[in-house]
Design brief:
Layout lengths: L4 E7 L9 E7 L4 H15 L3 H8 L7 H12 L1
Helix pairs in contact: 1-2
Amino acid sequence: MDKEYDFLIYKRGNETKEAKSIELKLPNDMTCSEFKVICLRMAHAIGYHETSVRETFGDIEDKNKESDKKQLKLLFD
């Protein structure tokens, strides 16, 4: 195992055409706020709706949010 990182792993237990497993590699020195952002991203990756995720997690500070929006725009435009 990698000693510099922890792992957050989601494995889907049923048959689906969606992702069967999602694994996030987390740095050991991550703050609680940074971990909350990772949890939000995991919720999106699993397939929870944007509205549901924002209602649950609230509006959180994500330093990469604007950068991510620009990357998504490049991908889908």
